[in-house]
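Thread: "does anyone have the structure for this chain?"

Original post by V.I.:
We have the sequence but no experimental structure in hand. Need at least a predicted one for the grant figures.
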Amino acid sequence: VQLQASGGGLVQAGGSLRLSCVASGRTFNNYHMGWFRQEPGKEREFVAAISRSASGGKTFYADSVKGRFAMSGDKVKNTVYLEMNSLRPEDTAVYYCAASSVALSGLRVPDHYYSWGRGTQVTVSS
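Reply from O.Q.:
Generated one for you, tokens below.
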């Protein structure tokens, strides 16, 4: 599956953005889908994930974004979204979407994803 993320931009603290990740080649619903982010010089960090429908479509969030971010999927558009609210300067990073087939317990680990889209930059000003 090929993935293309978009929707990043510059926003003031407290603002909102919605990231999109379009899947092509295969339906995203065959995979668990995840969002990660990475700042320069730092490791890629788990943000959110949604399990495939066969696994219940469950969502998982990093503690740092719980209650502010929401991940969802649109089967018709073959797209997953990351709705980001109450953004903070520390949310600034390049955001990536990715696909995985591992057990749900492994969804927070970047190495468990085998298909990555190009990232989209999110910058939150204070």
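V.I.: this helps a lot. The radius of gyration is 13 Å.
O.Q.: and The longest strand covers residues 17-24.
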